[in-house]
Amino acid sequence: MKKRFALGLTLGLVVSAFSGTAVLADEAPVTLTVYSPGNENSVPTKTIIEYARLVEEASEGKITLDVHHSGELGNDAEALMSTRMGTIDLIFAGTSGYTEFYENAKILDLPFLFDSAEEAYEVVNGEVGEQIFADLPSTGLVYLSEGDNGMRHISTTNRPIHTADDVEGIKLRVPTSQMYLDCWETLGANPVALALNELAIALSNGTAEGQDNATYHLVANATYDDIKYFSFINYMWMGCTMSANKDTWESLPEEYQTILKEQAKAAAKYSFDTIAEDNQAATETLKEAGVEFDEEPDIQSFKDKLGGEEYYQRYAGESWFNQEVLDAILAH
Description:
Structural class: alpha/beta
């Protein structure tokens, strides 16, 4: 246990007999480290800054979050390991990074789970999210909330995409993930797994003819110079998970835990709202750059070409696959 947490630290609630309101007792304050690997302008970093504000306000100044970002405490993988070890108390990082050591989160990498980011927020921050991350403490972390990292669409250099048939044979850059490769191969594309920092060059020299990123990602990562067409196919939602070091969490009184959990969900909503705003601004930037948008592509054609819900059964033998969770997601 860290020295800053006094053994037996307790926090009571003092209830005013006059006002009937509960206020935090005058106990020792706590300072926790919160980290996002992104730069100061990234949505995850903006989110943890907002989280720190919300927590300080809700705890009447008793909980202070010491905010770090911009690679100060390592990249995603390094920071997640540091949080599991207890060097970092709280982290907000891409859910894909968690899947390296917590396979149950891989279910969120399946395509066409959500029709919109708004739907994703309601689902992953409810009972479904709690069920997906129920075993996270086995990794040394405690799940707090699920924020937004963007809804993935398709944008191309050489052809508009309206139906699934339009992606036949296209060289499409995807992240280095087998599930992304599986999806686009099934749809008939020629997916190319590349790191993000290789994307702009690949689009320029023709190694890739398209990308499957969220709208704001194109602008934030400057990967739109060669893009001519953009189609809102809503095929994959990406999350950002807020979690706490398990030992740190268990050393805190229940009232502190309640505040951190509740405000983590509020911060998650902030991330969804912020990305929605960033997406709108990015859309305007892309339109000004001459990109043509298809705002109502034939999304059903993509689902049909994959084979509908039967597509998911190819993963039924995987240790992370959970039919009950999948059914709960699709029921929304």
